[in-house]
Amino acid sequence: MKGTEAESKVEKNRNSSFEFKQCVSILKSTAKRARDLRELREQISTVSEDSIFHHTCQYFLKGRVREYTNDFAQWTGETLEESALAEQLSNIDPYVFRNLSELRKALLSVIDDYLENFPEPKAAMPGEDFCFNETISVVFSAGIKAKNLAEFLVAIKYVDSASIYYHFYEARTRLGGKVDDFSRWFEDVLRERELAEKIRCIDPFMHSIEGIRTHIVEVVEEKVKRDMTVTGTGK
Protein backbone atom coordinates (compact mmCIF):
# COMPACT_ATOMS: atom_id res chain seq x y z
CA MET A 1 0.00 0.00 0.00
CA LYS A 2 2.78 2.38 0.93
CA GLY A 3 4.55 1.58 -2.30
CA THR A 4 1.45 2.40 -4.30
CA GLU A 5 1.01 5.72 -2.50
CA ALA A 6 4.64 6.63 -3.11
CA GLU A 7 4.33 5.80 -6.81
CA SER A 8 1.19 7.93 -7.07
CA LYS A 9 2.98 10.85 -5.44
CA VAL A 10 5.91 10.54 -7.84
CA GLU A 11 3.53 10.42 -10.81
CA LYS A 12 1.66 13.50 -9.54
CA ASN A 13 4.89 15.47 -9.18
CA ARG A 14 5.98 14.43 -12.64
CA ASN A 15 2.71 15.56 -14.17
CA SER A 16 2.89 18.93 -12.40
CA SER A 17 5.67 20.07 -14.73
CA PHE A 18 4.83 21.60 -18.08
CA GLU A 19 6.57 19.65 -20.84
CA PHE A 20 7.09 21.57 -24.06
CA LYS A 21 6.51 19.50 -27.15
CA GLN A 22 7.62 20.03 -30.70
CA CYS A 23 5.40 19.63 -33.75
CA VAL A 24 6.81 18.93 -37.20
CA SER A 25 4.48 18.77 -40.21
CA ILE A 26 5.43 16.94 -43.39
CA LEU A 27 3.57 18.33 -46.40
CA LYS A 28 1.91 15.86 -48.75
CA SER A 29 0.16 16.70 -52.01
CA THR A 30 -3.27 15.22 -52.70
CA ALA A 31 -2.98 15.98 -56.45
CA LYS A 32 -6.40 17.62 -56.24
CA ARG A 33 -6.89 21.12 -57.60
CA ALA A 34 -9.59 23.74 -58.09
CA ARG A 35 -9.74 26.36 -60.84
CA ASP A 36 -12.89 28.12 -59.74
CA LEU A 37 -15.30 28.35 -56.83
CA ARG A 38 -17.48 25.44 -57.93
CA GLU A 39 -14.47 23.16 -58.19
CA LEU A 40 -13.25 24.40 -54.82
CA ARG A 41 -16.63 23.53 -53.33
CA GLU A 42 -16.59 20.07 -54.91
CA GLN A 43 -13.11 19.27 -53.68
CA ILE A 44 -13.79 20.51 -50.14
CA SER A 45 -16.73 18.10 -50.01
CA THR A 46 -14.55 15.09 -50.84
CA VAL A 47 -10.97 15.69 -49.67
CA SER A 48 -9.70 14.03 -46.52
CA GLU A 49 -10.20 15.57 -43.10
CA ASP A 50 -6.40 15.84 -42.91
CA SER A 51 -6.57 18.23 -45.86
CA ILE A 52 -9.34 20.29 -44.26
CA PHE A 53 -7.27 20.45 -41.07
CA HIS A 54 -4.15 21.55 -42.94
CA HIS A 55 -5.84 24.39 -44.82
CA THR A 56 -7.67 25.74 -41.76
CA CYS A 57 -6.24 24.79 -38.35
CA GLN A 58 -2.63 24.63 -39.54
CA TYR A 59 -2.87 27.94 -41.37
CA PHE A 60 -1.00 29.71 -38.58
CA LEU A 61 2.07 27.52 -39.05
CA LYS A 62 2.87 29.80 -41.98
CA GLY A 63 4.31 32.10 -39.34
CA ARG A 64 2.88 35.42 -40.48
CA VAL A 65 -0.41 37.24 -40.29
CA ARG A 66 -2.26 37.41 -43.58
CA GLU A 67 -5.40 39.25 -44.53
CA TYR A 68 -7.53 36.12 -44.06
CA THR A 69 -7.47 33.23 -41.58
CA ASN A 70 -7.44 30.09 -43.73
CA ASP A 71 -6.12 28.99 -47.12
CA PHE A 72 -9.56 28.78 -48.71
CA ALA A 73 -10.37 32.37 -47.81
CA GLN A 74 -6.92 33.53 -48.87
CA TRP A 75 -7.20 31.98 -52.34
CA THR A 76 -10.79 33.14 -52.79
CA GLY A 77 -9.90 36.70 -51.87
CA GLU A 78 -6.51 37.10 -53.55
CA THR A 79 -6.82 34.88 -56.61
CA LEU A 80 -10.53 34.91 -57.43
CA GLU A 81 -10.99 38.44 -56.05
CA GLU A 82 -14.22 37.37 -54.34
CA SER A 83 -13.57 39.50 -51.26
CA ALA A 84 -17.08 39.20 -49.81
CA LEU A 85 -16.90 35.42 -49.81
CA ALA A 86 -13.33 35.49 -48.54
CA GLU A 87 -14.45 37.51 -45.53
CA GLN A 88 -17.22 35.03 -44.77
CA LEU A 89 -14.85 32.07 -45.01
CA SER A 90 -12.32 33.91 -42.89
CA ASN A 91 -14.91 34.44 -40.15
CA ILE A 92 -15.22 30.68 -39.63
CA ASP A 93 -13.36 29.75 -36.45
CA PRO A 94 -12.07 26.19 -36.99
CA TYR A 95 -11.57 25.65 -33.26
CA VAL A 96 -15.21 25.98 -32.20
CA PHE A 97 -16.37 22.84 -33.99
CA ARG A 98 -16.58 19.46 -32.28
CA ASN A 99 -14.99 17.74 -35.25
CA LEU A 100 -13.68 18.36 -38.75
CA SER A 101 -16.87 17.05 -40.32
CA GLU A 102 -18.77 19.99 -38.83
CA LEU A 103 -16.08 22.38 -39.99
CA ARG A 104 -16.34 20.98 -43.52
CA LYS A 105 -20.12 21.50 -43.49
CA ALA A 106 -19.68 25.10 -42.36
CA LEU A 107 -17.27 25.83 -45.21
CA LEU A 108 -19.61 24.25 -47.75
CA SER A 109 -22.63 26.11 -46.40
CA VAL A 110 -20.93 29.48 -46.83
CA ILE A 111 -19.84 28.66 -50.39
CA ASP A 112 -23.26 27.29 -51.33
CA ASP A 113 -25.01 30.43 -50.11
CA TYR A 114 -22.61 32.56 -52.10
CA LEU A 115 -23.05 30.52 -55.30
CA GLU A 116 -26.80 30.81 -54.97
CA ASN A 117 -26.51 34.58 -55.18
CA PHE A 118 -23.58 34.69 -57.59
CA PRO A 119 -23.88 31.59 -59.81
CA GLU A 120 -21.14 32.56 -62.28
CA PRO A 121 -17.93 33.32 -60.33
CA LYS A 122 -14.71 33.93 -62.20
CA ALA A 123 -12.01 31.29 -62.67
CA ALA A 124 -8.39 31.54 -61.61
CA MET A 125 -5.70 32.49 -64.10
CA PRO A 126 -3.60 29.61 -65.50
CA GLY A 127 -1.09 28.45 -62.89
CA GLU A 128 -3.05 29.91 -59.98
CA ASP A 129 -5.18 26.87 -59.15
CA PHE A 130 -5.87 26.01 -55.53
CA CYS A 131 -3.76 22.95 -54.67
CA PHE A 132 -5.10 20.73 -51.93
CA ASN A 133 -2.47 19.41 -49.56
CA GLU A 134 -2.45 17.54 -46.28
CA THR A 135 0.20 16.99 -43.66
CA ILE A 136 1.57 14.24 -41.51
CA SER A 137 2.25 15.69 -38.07
CA VAL A 138 4.95 14.29 -35.83
CA VAL A 139 4.85 15.36 -32.16
CA PHE A 140 7.76 14.78 -29.80
CA SER A 141 9.24 16.22 -26.63
CA ALA A 142 11.31 19.38 -27.00
CA GLY A 143 13.33 18.29 -23.97
CA ILE A 144 12.24 21.31 -21.93
CA LYS A 145 10.13 21.27 -18.77
CA ALA A 146 8.97 24.01 -16.39
CA LYS A 147 7.95 23.49 -12.78
CA ASN A 148 6.88 27.08 -12.06
CA LEU A 149 6.16 30.40 -13.75
CA ALA A 150 9.77 31.59 -13.62
CA GLU A 151 11.01 28.50 -15.44
CA PHE A 152 8.10 28.73 -17.87
CA LEU A 153 8.98 32.35 -18.65
CA VAL A 154 12.55 31.44 -19.56
CA ALA A 155 11.44 28.48 -21.70
CA ILE A 156 8.66 30.27 -23.62
CA LYS A 157 11.16 32.86 -24.86
CA TYR A 158 13.35 30.29 -26.60
CA VAL A 159 11.26 27.29 -27.66
CA ASP A 160 10.71 26.79 -31.37
CA SER A 161 7.72 28.56 -32.92
CA ALA A 162 6.25 25.16 -33.87
CA SER A 163 6.03 24.41 -30.14
CA ILE A 164 4.02 27.59 -29.61
CA TYR A 165 1.71 26.51 -32.42
CA TYR A 166 1.22 23.04 -30.93
CA HIS A 167 0.41 24.23 -27.43
CA PHE A 168 -1.60 27.35 -28.30
CA TYR A 169 -3.35 26.59 -31.61
CA GLU A 170 -3.42 22.84 -32.12
CA ALA A 171 -4.43 22.32 -28.48
CA ARG A 172 -7.75 23.98 -29.23
CA THR A 173 -8.57 21.04 -31.49
CA ARG A 174 -7.47 18.48 -28.91
CA LEU A 175 -9.03 20.14 -25.85
CA GLY A 176 -12.00 21.89 -27.43
CA GLY A 177 -13.21 25.47 -27.19
CA LYS A 178 -10.79 28.24 -26.32
CA VAL A 179 -8.64 26.10 -24.06
CA ASP A 180 -4.92 25.79 -24.80
CA ASP A 181 -2.18 23.80 -23.07
CA PHE A 182 -0.61 26.85 -21.45
CA SER A 183 -3.77 28.21 -19.81
CA ARG A 184 -4.88 24.75 -18.74
CA TRP A 185 -1.57 24.20 -16.93
CA PHE A 186 -1.73 27.62 -15.30
CA GLU A 187 -5.24 26.94 -14.00
CA ASP A 188 -5.21 23.21 -13.21
CA VAL A 189 -1.68 22.83 -11.86
CA LEU A 190 -0.50 26.25 -10.69
CA ARG A 191 -3.99 27.41 -9.66
CA GLU A 192 -3.45 30.69 -11.49
CA ARG A 193 -6.96 31.20 -12.83
CA GLU A 194 -6.57 34.90 -13.57
CA LEU A 195 -3.40 34.28 -15.54
CA ALA A 196 -5.09 31.46 -17.44
CA GLU A 197 -7.95 33.77 -18.42
CA LYS A 198 -5.52 36.39 -19.71
CA ILE A 199 -3.86 33.81 -21.94
CA ARG A 200 -7.23 32.65 -23.26
CA CYS A 201 -8.15 36.24 -24.09
CA ILE A 202 -5.29 36.48 -26.59
CA ASP A 203 -6.96 36.41 -30.00
CA PRO A 204 -5.32 33.65 -32.09
CA PHE A 205 -6.52 35.26 -35.32
CA MET A 206 -4.95 38.65 -34.72
CA HIS A 207 -1.31 37.65 -34.33
CA SER A 208 1.43 35.58 -35.87
CA ILE A 209 2.92 32.78 -33.78
CA GLU A 210 5.72 35.13 -32.74
CA GLY A 211 3.10 37.70 -31.81
CA ILE A 212 1.43 35.09 -29.60
CA ARG A 213 4.77 34.34 -27.97
CA THR A 214 5.31 38.04 -27.25
CA HIS A 215 1.89 38.40 -25.61
CA ILE A 216 2.36 35.30 -23.47
CA VAL A 217 5.78 36.55 -22.33
CA GLU A 218 4.31 39.94 -21.40
CA VAL A 219 1.44 38.44 -19.39
CA VAL A 220 3.58 35.90 -17.53
CA GLU A 221 6.40 38.39 -16.94
CA GLU A 222 3.96 40.84 -15.39
CA LYS A 223 2.67 38.10 -13.06
CA VAL A 224 6.20 37.00 -12.05
CA LYS A 225 7.26 40.57 -11.29
CA ARG A 226 4.10 41.18 -9.28
CA ASP A 227 4.71 38.05 -7.23
CA MET A 228 8.31 39.07 -6.58
CA THR A 229 7.15 42.44 -5.29
CA VAL A 230 4.54 40.91 -3.01
CA THR A 231 7.04 38.51 -1.48
CA GLY A 232 9.55 41.30 -0.97
CA THR A 233 12.13 40.07 -3.47
CA GLY A 234 11.40 42.72 -6.07
CA LYS A 235 12.26 46.41 -6.10
Outline the secondary-structure elements.
Blueprint: H1 2-15, E1 18-34, H2 37-46, H3 49-56, H4 71-78, H5 83-90, H6 100-117, E2 130-146, H7 149-156, H8 161-175, H9 181-188, H10 193-200, H11 209-230
Antiparallel strand pairs: 1-2
Helix pairs in contact: 2-6, 4-5, 7-11, 8-11, 9-10
Let me know the number of strands.
2
Helical stretch tally: 11
Distance between the termini: 48 Å
Oligomer: single chain
How many structural domains does the protein architecture include?
2
What's the overall average pLDDT, rounded? Answer: 87
Q: What structural class do you assign from the helix and strand content?
A: alpha+beta
Shape: elongated
**Fraction in beta strands:** 5-15%
Q: Share of helix among residues?
A: 40-55%
Q: Describe the largest sheet.
A: 2 strands, antiparallel
Strand order of the largest sheet: 1-2
Rg for CA atoms: 21 Å
- Poorly predicted runs of 5 or more residues: 1-14
SSE order = HEHHHHHEHHHHH
At a glance:
The chain has 235 residues and is α+β, with helices and mostly antiparallel strands. 54% of the residues lie in helices and 14% in strands.
Write structural notes for this entry.
With 235 residues, this protein is an alpha+beta fold. It folds into 2 domains: 23-134, no CATH class; 142-230, no CATH class. 54% of the residues lie in helices and 14% in strands. It contains 11 helices and 2 strands, in the order αβαααααβααααα. The chain has helices at residues 2-15, 37-46, 49-56, 71-78, 83-90, 100-117, 149-156, 161-175, 181-188, 193-200, 209-230; strands at 18-34, 130-146. It has a two-stranded antiparallel sheet with strand order 1-2. The radius of gyration is 21 Å and the shape is elongated. The termini are far apart. Residues 1-14 have low confidence and may be disordered.
